[in-house]
Amino acid sequence: METVSQYKNIVPIFKKELRSYFNSAVAYVVIVVFLGIVGWFHSNSLFLNNVASLRLMFDIVPMVFLFIIPAITMRLLSEEKKSGTIELLVTKPLSDTEIVLGKFLAAWALVGITLVPTLVYYITVASLGNIDHGPVLGGYFGLLLMAGVFIAIGLFASSLTENQVVAFIIGLGMVLAFFMFDKILPFVPAWLTTTVEFLGVDYHKTNIERGVIDSRDILYFLSLLGLMLYLTILSLERRKW
Amino acid sequence: MAISVQNLTKYYGREKAVENISFEVKTGEILGFLGPNGAGKTTTMKIITCYMPPSSGTVEVDGYNIFEHSMDVRRKIGYLPELNPLYLDMNVVEYLDYAARLQGMNGGTITQRLKHMVEVCGLGNMRHKDIGELSKGYRQRVGLAQAMIHDPEMLILDEPTSGLDPNQIVEIRKLIKDIGEKKTVILSTHILSEVQATCDRVIIINEGTIVADGSPEKLQQEFRGAEVITVEIKSNESADAIAQKLKSLANVESVERIATDGALSHSFTLMTAKGSDIREELFNRAVAERWVLLELTRKGTSLEEIFHKLTRAES
Predict the structure, then answer these.
(1) Complete edge-to-edge strand list for the sheet that includes strand B252-258
(2) CB distance B90–A1 less than 8 Å?
(3) Is residue B253 assigned to a domain?
C-alpha cells in the first residue's frame, strides 16, 4: 500500500506556507511587534535589575506568544476551508497528516525565525556581565517547546471553523487556559493542585528554563503537542463522516 | 473500464444525496453528468476523487479501488472542484508549481509540464500575475491547468464553465474537447447545450439516482415524443387533395392545415408517430407529385425537453 516516503509531501506544504507568511505582511508584522514588545520590556528592566540574565525576557515572551501565535495559526486551515482550496489539497496524493504537519512546521519555523534576533540581547547581555549559559539554552528550548504547543492548539482551532476571527478567539482561549493552569492554584482544591499545576504550560517551561531537563516536562510538551495535532487531523477528516 | 462506479450510496447525516448509482466510463470518453442543482453530481465526483468515502458501494479507477489504493487513484485523476477554488495570493506559475509538487513531481518534469500547460491553456501573458488579479475566464484556465499539470489519465471537472461569459464558455469548451481527445473526462453541468456540444455520453441524474444514460443522440431518440413537422407546399392541387395525400404517408398521424394567404401555396402541420422521421419520404413524395416544397421544418424533441421531462416528473 502507501508506504513509500510517507512524509515527503510535508516539504511542499511547509515551503508554501512559510513563503506565504513572508509574501503577505504577516511575517513582518509578527517579527516587528514581537521584537518591539520584548525589546522594550527587556531593555527597560535589564539595567534596573542590574543582573546579567535573560530571565525577564523569557518571562515576557510567553505573554507575547499568547496573542501572536493564535494570529499566526488562525488562517492556516480556516482560510482553506473558506475558499474551498482544502478540497484541492485533500484530493492530491498526500495524507491529511502531511497537510497538518507541513502547516504546523511552517508556523513553528516562523516563530523560530522571530526568536533569532533576540540572540542580540543574549550577546549584549553576555558582553556586559557574567551570564550563565545553561539557563539561556534551556530558556530558548522551553520557548520553542511552548511555541510548538501553542501552534498545535492554534492549528486545531483553525481546523474547527471557516472564520479566521473565530479561529483566533478559540485559539487564544485555549492557549490562555493552558497558560493559566498553574496561575490559578490558590483557587483550586488542595487535592487537585498537583494535577492542575502539571497541566500548566508555563510550569513546565519554567522547569526547563532552569537548565535542568526533566523527561516529565519533555513528555508533557510532546504529548500535548501530539494530542493537538491528532485532534486537528481528526477534525480535517470530519468531511468523511 | 477507466472508471467503474458500483452501487454508490451517500448519506449526509440522514439526508440521502446519492442512492445506488452504478455506471462505467470507458477510456477516452467524455461523459456529461447532467442534473439540476442538488441532484448528486458533486457528491458523486467528490467520492470518485477521494474527497470523502461513500456510505456504501465503491469506485474503481483504472482497476484501483478508492479505499485500498486511494493514493494511486488520486495520481490518476485531475480534479477541478466546483467554483474552482484557488489561492488568490499566489501567481500563476507559483500555483501550478505547488500543484505539481503536491502531485509528487520533481524539478525537471515540473518545468517542462508547466511550460506545456501554460501554452495549452493560453496563460502565456498571465504567468507572473497574481491569480487574484485574473478574470474569471483566466482563473478557469488556471484551474484546468492545475488539474492537468501531472498529465492525469482522467479529468473530473465539476461545472467547468459556470460563471463564465458566452465567449469564455466557448473557449473553455473547446479546450475540454481538445483535452478529451486523449483523456477520459467526466464533467458535470446543468447547462444542456454544454453536453450536446462536448460530450460523447450523457448521464442524467436526479434526486440521487440515474434517470437516463446514453449518447446525446440515443437519448434524443429514446425520449422522442410525437414530432411536429411543418410543410409549405406550392401546387395547383387543392389544399384538401394535398392533405389527403399527406395523410396517406406512413407514420403521419394527423394533418392540419394552416391558413395561408398565398393562393397557390398551402401550409400544413403534420403530427408524426413517436421516433419516426418522415422528412425524406415527404420530400420524395413531393418530387413525385411535382409539388414545390417551400418549407420543411421539424420540431424534434431536444435534450432540453428530455431533461425537463425526466427531472420534473420525479420531483
Answers:
(1) B252-258, B265-272, B227-234, B292-299
(2) no
(3) yes
